[in-house]
Amino acid sequence: MSDDASPSDGNLIKATLAGQPTAFGQLVLKYQDRLFNSVFRLLGSTEDARDITQDAFVQAFLKLETFRGSAAFYTWLYRIGFNLAMSHARGKHNTQSLDGAKSDRGSEPVDGRPLPEADFAREEQIKLVHAAIGKLVAEYRQIIVLREIESCSYDQIADILDLPIGTVRSRLFRARLALRDQLAPMLADPVILSKRA
Amino acid sequence: MTNPEHIDDEMLSAYLDNELAPQERARVEERLAADPAARQLLEQLRAVSQAVKDLPAAPLGTDLRDVVLRRAERAMLVSNPGESAAADGNSPRGSNPRFTIGRSVRGWVWAGLATAAGLAIMAFESNSDRDAQLPESVAERSAQPTGESKPSPELRALVKTEQPAAPSEAADSRSPETPPAPEGGAAISTVAGDESSIHGARDQLPALSDIAATAPQQKNLDQLQVATHKDVGISGRGGGRLATGNSGIAGATTRDSDSAAENLLVVRVQVRPEAFAGRAFDRVLASNRIAVEEPADDSAAAAVAPNGAPLSAGSSAQNETLNSAPAIPARENSPVMPGTELALSRRPQTQNDQPQSNTSTANPATGTDVILVEAPKEQIESCLAEIHKNDHDYLGVAVDEDETLKRKASTADRGANWSQYARGIVSQQERLQQAADSNYFLQTRDGPVTIDRGENRGANEQQTEHERSLAQKDNKLAEQNGRAFRMKSQLQQEPAQPTYSSNARALRLDSDRAQLSSANARSGFAGIDNKEMAQEERGQRAADTIQVLFVLSPGDEPATSPPPAGTKAAK
Q1: In chain B, which residue's Cα lies nearest the Cα of A178?
Q2: For residue A161, what pLDDT band results from cuts at 50, 70 and 90?
Q3: Which SS3 state, helix, strand or coil, does residue B486 take?
Q4: Nearest to A179 by CA among A124, A120, A130
Q5: Alpha-carbon torsion B421, B427, B433, B439, what sign?
Q6: Do A59 and B45 touch (CB under 8 A)?
Q7: Smallest Cα–Cα separation from A22: which of B226, B557, B68, B384?
Q8: How far apart are CA B308 and CA B325, in angstroms?
Q9: What is the DSSP string of B440-458?
């Protein structure tokens, strides 16, 4: 996981523990977008992701004493958020795909600006990829997000998911194959491929 | 069945991620050089990986700082963040960084509120089994005030860990950095420290009395601010530190307790000083079948700290600031930790203090009354509607509801638009205009009820009106239960309480554990001696109740106009 090893995180945590909640607010501001994005890719719902992101920060605040600094703060925070997201997803519907649930939770967040026509294909690609991730089974989706969105190393993934490294490797491979199958039309599109290249 | 070819393909994926050992990598490169299919697969995997990586970051679109901090404070409010080690000289202190609570006066207030709320909720949720155990626990705790390793039944009720077992197992088994799984359902999860979480949590339980005992040690406990509308609950400022033990102070809550906090509605009410002194709000609760129970011994409110400084809570009516103690005489031979009400620490008055005339015993219209009410939504709404309407006695109402409650308002049938009951301080002119209105609006769960009223009624007649209103509501609310805990009170003079027969129970919360437990032992709530009745009421209690923390403070705009006729709540 590519942590922002900001030296100020430790100071902010110390300040929070010393009774300055606003210091924790700075941590929230620093990591909220990143955590939200990851949770959003896990859950597919903007609203759920926002709630889970909030929950993660609240729990992190309440448990901050237990953070001892041997790992980066974001890694610790991410584990909280990831566990919350997975718990939420299990509680909601184990088999509910992101695509299937899209109708009642909104679509991919957009900035609201009208898209230039030239970007339309790109926007379509984003939707396709997002939907494809949503169609993955939960265990594939988790590992794809951890690896591709959060850039976790295999060791970190193994730690977060409590899996052997070999399982991480094989599961990630199968998840990629599943994505490949779903994205085959897009990947075969020379326009998109050329854009990506 | 392991497929060697598949394993080789997996290595392609790992090769893509640069996660292969040098020997493996060399083997893969050898294969790629000789196998076009392998090269094609690698390209496909790379394209897939890149497509996901190319996804733009989803915009959050909001700043979560405020809501996170507010929710965290709410969670503290109903969690168990106390520190019994404050009074336990055997516990090492300050060896670890500690949380906000206890490091400042604000933390003190939160610690007190949170523990009191925790005790209150614990009392709410008492069950017959625990009732049966309580006398024993009271005896145990009487004999073993601190430092015991055996968690009390109350604590066991609070500390619901999925993996309780031995205390040492309660700590995170993976690593100190590994957060517990959220679905664990632990009401209060582990805290860092050498001691076990359960042990630590046990130590946290008697925080109020410990706070009381430690309060005078603080050097700068000069100003505790009652939060204004934008804040949650009570905050404060000033120095001071609650000495902590290894148990830690931030009782880490899981979603269970967090969600409990989310369902807590905080309502701050500015009350006309006379109405505040007369406990008009108690009558609002009473008219809605919610009785507020006082501590068995009111004198216990004047807890005496080791140095003799009286401990009580209150806030200046003018600046919503808790200043030094009123002149409550220290009681000799008082125990160190008698039943203090939510004891906000005080220090002896100094030359720099602001005048304290409005916090003297002679003027009871001071302080801040904190009452935790648990009741069905309809009763809460009725109470809020009443105080919302009565702008003579209730100068301002601020409702702080959590996002969860707001969502309930829009989605769930149990929700309510709580913010509709908020209003600012009503101007004198508006009050006069409203005083001209000859009808009093009474909101019930079935809709508004207009009650004819007359002016110049005598006290007896007003009381009759009050009783008539109670009888009217009986038909609508008879099946509902509501309970209120007075978490603290600065009042020194007890006004006559209306007599009524209520199926609601309440406890004027006394933080003394023995008293609270004793009350629990009787029926779960003092005043109900019939255990069968208490059990029946528990059975009748609506599962979907709402907890509201009413923070009442005297208003800074003393009413000069006559009260609008018929505003019964003030009568």
Answers
A1: B48
A2: confident
A3: strand
A4: A130
A5: positive
A6: no
A7: B68
A8: 12
A9: EEEEETTEEEEEE--SS--
The residue of chain A with its CA nearest to that of B259 is A55
Strand-pair partners of B292: B484
- The pLDDT of residue B130: 44
Q: Do A65 and B59 touch (CB under 8 A)?
A: no
> CA-to-CA distance for B80 and B61, rounded, in angstroms?
33
DSSP strand pairing (B290-293 vs B482-488): parallel
* Distance between CA atoms of residues A135 and A18, nearest Å: 45
Q: How far is CA A85 from the centre of its chain?
A: 9
Residues of chain A contacting residue B76, judged by C-beta atoms under 8 Å apart? 62
Q: What are φ and ψ of residue B335, in 5° steps?
A: -65, 160
**Residue B225, strand partner residues:** B321
Q: What is the largest CA-CA distance in chain B?
A: 105
Find residue B376's DSSP bridge partners. Answer: B545
- Report pLDDT for A65: 87
CA distances from A114 to A107, A149, B373, B560 (A): 16, 26, 50, 59
Q: Do B255 and A83 touch (CB under 8 A)?
A: no
Min distance B3 CA to chain A CA atoms (Å)? 11
Binding-face residues of B in 162-201 toward A, CB within 8 A? 172, 174-183, 189-193
pLDDT at B135 over 80: no
Choose among B432, B393, B316, B324: nearest CA to B567.
B393
Q: Shortest CA distance to B80 belongs to which of B233, B226, B183, B197?
A: B197
Rounded to an integer, what distance in angstroms lies between the CA atom of residue B491 and that of residue A77?
45
Interface test with A, best of B12, B20, B64 (most A CBs within 10 A): B64
Taking residue B31's Cβ as centre, other Cβ atoms within 10 Å add up to 18
With an 8 Å Cβ cutoff, are B48 and A28 in contact? no
B57 touches chain A (CB under 8 A): yes
Do residue B75 and residue A62 have CB atoms under 8 angstroms apart? yes
Q: Do B241 and B97 contact (CB within 8 A), yes or no?
A: no
Report the phi/psi class of residue B538: left, alpha or beta, with left for phi > 0 and alpha for psi in -120 to 50: alpha
Give yes or no for residue A140 having a pLDDT over 90.
yes
Closest alpha carbon to A37 in A122, A108, A89: A108
Residue with tokens 């709404």: B381
Residue B280 Cα distances to B33, B287, B328, B445, angstroms: 87, 11, 24, 21
**Any idea of the CA torsion for B534, B540, B546, B552, to the nearest 10 degrees?**
-40
B253–A59 CB contact, under 8 Å: yes
Which residues does B256 contact at the CB level (< 8 Å), separation at least 6?
A: B160, B185, B186, B187
Whether A149 sits inside 8 A of B53 (CB atoms) is yes
Q: Please state the ipTM of this predicted complex.
A: 0.81
Q: Kindly state whether B58 is in contact with chain A, defined as any CB-CB distance less than 8 angstroms.
A: yes
Please give the DSSP secondary-structure letter assigned to residue B102.
Answer: T
* B108 pLDDT above the threshold of 90: no
How far is A42 from A27, CA to CA, in rounded Å? 22
Contact at CB, B253 and A70, closer than 8 angstroms: no
d(CA A107, CA A130): 10
pTM assigned to the model: 0.41
In chain B, % of residues over pLDDT 70:
26
**Which of A61, A90, A196 is closest, CB to CB, to B51?**
A196
**What distance in Å separates the CA atoms of residue B123 and residue B154, rounded to the nearest whole number?**
9
Buried b (16+ CB within 10 A) or exposed e, B301-340: bbbbbeeebbbbbbbbbeebbbbbbbebebeeebeebbbb
- SS3 sequence, B143-184? HCCCCCCCCCHHHHHHCCCCCCCCHHHHCCCCCCCCCCCHHH
